[in-house]
Recover the amino acids of this structure.
């Protein structure tokens, strides 16, 4: 079904294998999911994407679970099926409870609805929001 | 610029004023932002939207700031200008730091990029993600 | 394939069953489609969504078939596969003819095309449209 | 603000003027809105778009106001500001009442919300919807 | 799975067959892909779409492969699965190399990411870009 | 209007200035456009985005103008106003003619329309497209 071949370890070049090794070491797991096997059709794209993702999703001021839920929110809004599956699974693995999942659904459903209404009505931005943002 | 009139307090019906009053009481502020003044062209829609939003964005298992950042993530992905301004301002008012803002940007930028790549390559969902989600 | 379990009647809580009962009574059919069984993972979200949908899609000034076709137009533009299937089926059940379906396709295809061109060219809004809308 | 010049009648080629003339004759108005003046940078694209639009939005089995509201629904979902302004104005000119506008808002807001939820939960299509559609 | 029947040659009307014949003659192949068989439920829509597509994707100043890659870029951004499959196959048939495919992926991934960041930050357009575009 | 401050050279940290210097050296111009001044609120995000963009849009097998037009196609489909302005200006600076612009518009308009129709009709992917892609 993919529009590209999924590169197995046996078919991988040295550059690809080096990225696979780093994914395995970083995650402490032998498993390489299909996204990386697909991206491996272009080793430079694979390397650049993985190295950036590792930093972005790594330790920071935002909680790892919060980052996963933000990733879910974008992926759901973009309608990316694979991403929805993989990041929902990842969020659960990081401790997302059923209640948190329900609240996440409620927030993104509400946002989608009010986004649509605001866009339809071309609501002008309140002065106070501009002021609040400009003082950063 | 709006495609509807923005209803002032003076022009508001009793039903609309009752919602405005509840917004003021809930938020502890006299200010009514333009979204609600625009929605007021249909008092039933105004009431239903506000009452649901009050619950969804109210106390729960997810932190109020996390909810705002999720709202931002969806609004940015949908390209809703007003919503981006209002929810960015709201997140800052709830304590979002510059570092957290930078991390939020990094996550949503990364998600947008990988969503696009996954969609392009039609990556098949790994069995393990399905299993992980189905055991909920 | 779903990222949540589909709640059967047997697995449903009292709150969920009450909503299922109202869906059955409102529609005059014993059938509960999968959307509601999925939403049932969060009974509050299920109840809020159903009660609002019942009002929105209920009797009003717009014809029920027109409402279904509007729902189709949004769902198609958002690329929501399940929604496209369910609302296309619903529109046919409400009497949409093949000719009407063809015209609907033609309008949404045309709109998608001109939306894209307008966005590309950043066409400024004509004064007359603003005036026409502001006199509401 | 536009990324292309808006072609005035004086600057228009014979091919462009012929389309402008047909727009004026078809609409019974001397006014040419900016979309057509922008598209006029490519006379072949202008002609093809206008001739198709004239047919698509012309007489048929769907009511002209319904066609405008469907155009609005797609334009709002795509976030095309110019299109939202022009088609909202057109719908009002064709008789859309405030109540109908409010119902339209309610339907597209509801659809955006349920689209998002369905996409998040990857709800599998019910057999009955497939059957219903396949018997066409 | 389709929401419409796929019209076979045997079930096709004379108008539909005439379009199918032209597709075959233009492409020098007997094969009619499913998009046209689905569109055939409305012969006027089929004819208008095919005749326009033939011109748009026909000879011009842009290379045929470049046109296919542009079509891919839009289809991927819109998340249209069928279109991604058909236009990726078409681009390969027109000579797209693996390296070019990798670069295409890199560009659209980058664009998706910066689009998201720009939208989030509401970056004002630089004067110089307006000037550059207005001098066309 | 921006939701973040635009960092001037005077307000920039050493890390930010180093990126600004590289942008200037790479482009052979003293001008820094607003996107980079906005991104500079997070120096790590600025650096990562610029360094990746420099590679992606740098020399390769795809012509620089083709890359710009692909960037335009994605930006237009995502409705990113700033990006549409900046990349349209960039494509013109790289030699895009008015005829090429017209053809680009025609292709993206056509793609948007057929994407919408395919999505509406849930057209199943032809076997031959899968085969063609799998042999890569």
């Amino acid at each position: 079904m993919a529009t590209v071949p999924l590169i197995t370890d046996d078919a991988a070049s040295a550059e690809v294998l080096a990225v696979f090794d780093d994914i395995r070491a970083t995650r402490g797991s032998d498993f390489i999911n299909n996204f990386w096997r697909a991206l491996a059709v272009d080793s430079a794209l694979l390397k650049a994407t993985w190295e950036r993702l590792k930093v972005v999703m790594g330790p920071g001021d935002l909680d790892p679970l919060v980052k996963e839920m933000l990733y879910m929110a974008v992926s759901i809004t973009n309608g990316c099926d694979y991403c929805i599956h993989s990041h929902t699974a990842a969020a659960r693995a990081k401790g997302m409870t059923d209640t948190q999942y329900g609240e996440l659904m409620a927030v993104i459903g509400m946002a989608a609805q009010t986004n649509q209404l605001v866009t339809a009505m071309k609501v002008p931005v309140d002065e106070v929001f501009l002021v609040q943002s400009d003082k950063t």
Remarks:
- Chain B is about 70% helix and 0% strand.
- The radius of gyration of chain B is 19 Å.
- The helical segments of chain B are 14-27, 34-39, 43-56, 64-78, 81-93, 98-121, 127-134.
